[in-house]
Amino acid sequence: MKQFLEIGKLINTHGIKGEMKLEMWCDDIEYLKQFKTLYLDCSGADSLKFISARPQKNHAIVKFSEITSIDMAEKLKNSVVYCNRDDAEIDEDANYIQDLIGCLVVHAESNAEYGAVFDVVNYGASDILDVVNDKKHSYIPVIPDIVKEIDTENEMIRIIPMKGLFDEN
User: Fold this and answer.
1) Whole-prediction pTM value?
2) Residue 162 carries which DSSP code?
């Protein structure tokens, strides 16, 4: 499992005092607000002290103590921002998308393999697993009727597919 997780991208400056507009890749601004430090690399070597975040439409306006001018903020435009997973609290039944990618999807009863999670998308109703098997994509809604167990430690997702999900005819 990756220790440092992508939470968004700094897409623009905001004002002249170093605030920036963040395109959030995390659930919401409340998740973002729990951090004291964010990172500019996936190894945690380049850190920034996180001061504040406030919503603006589908983005967040963020402030870091080290960034005090528009010129400094301009240099960070298009940077991906990471968090340390140890600094975050998530619900017990929640999972990071990064941890789902690569998990093997199997039938909960027969252990038949359906492929591996390539991506997780969400169009509003629920998360959807994009599962790839021999270059063929199948889309599995993450709902209790179908997904019976998600075990990221063992990289396994057990499902009971609904009729037609994998049937060719």
Assistant:
1) 0.76
2) P
